[in-house]
Specification:
mainly alpha, single chain, Calcium-transporting ATPase, transmembrane domain, 2 domains, three-stranded parallel beta sheet, 14 helices
Length: about 375
Amino acid sequence: GDHLETGLEYVGIIGLVDPARAEVPDAVAECHSAGIKVAMVTGDHALTARAVAARVGILDHERVVTGPELEAMSDEDLTRAVEDIRVYARVNPEHKLRIVEALKANGEIVAMTGDGVNDAPALKRADIGVAMGLVGTDVSREAADMVLADDNFATIVEAVRQGRIIFDNLRKVVLFLLSCNMSEVLIVFITALFSPVPALSALQLLWINLVTDGPPALALGVDPGSPRVMQRKPRGTDESMLTGLRQRQIVVQGALMTLAGLIVFFGTEYKLFPVDSPAHAQTMLFTAMVLVQLLHAFDFISDTRTVFSPESLRNKWLLAGLAGSVALQAAVIYAPSLQRIFGTQPLGLADWLAVAVSVLVPFVAIDVIKVAGARRAARRDAA
């Protein structure tokens, strides 16, 4: 008793907290809107884990499971329960590995974060192991598929966003090129049935591919992506880039673009569009095929919005590519030296009006079909 402090006066209490970063709640909310389930696995006390998880939006009404409770569960019980658990407390690295195994047994694609040596098995077993670049050990970084240079959860979410955008852009480029090439094949084949003279020369076909497939395809490849890219569920692991729906899209869009060329071809053949020579008619068809394919690139800016919405203007590279390609096509039509090379003739105002009408008919039809299909899909998902 002689060593006890006496005569002390209580003046206050100090509390220490290690708060989550300010951007984490928004990142968690974005994961939820993207169909991504977020779970917190920590060695902290259950009360601490619950408070932090509730603050960042991970925990709503789900229960907190502790390490001892995990040890009492069989692998089968954990596999059944893991889908409904969002917070694990007082766990060790072996528990993390079991959690990953249980999620994968349910067919989930699992990303696991870790920073310690003992986290390496769970990082390796996860589909995507994520290590901390600042505080993580060398062993954890070696075992991981991705290393966070800033140790920030929001960076993982941004990586998911960019991954979705890259996949979408690759799909856009493939769909654009295949539908355009299909229209070129169809126009050459169909016109050959009605005219012994080729509707388009080999050089003109090469030019169409150069002008319409090059700049627009490159621009679609660097599209900034839809602002709603994180508002849809993840695609299935077995989903092909060219699903049945996308294959039908190629056929329908290719056929409608062919319609633009056929309107010009038959319009000149049957004197609906007056021309004074075969080269004149060929120039109109040539120009129609270039323009309809250039405009078709804008159909891929959004899968759900009309091409006439302001969103269609977000890709500045595509706008620049359109302007450059139109300028090149004008040079081929009006520059005398290029006229001789490509076999073209100057087009007058009436010719341009005829070409514009021929191009706009399928262009609007493709847009209407796209928007109507998106609305049907939205109603089906909501039902």
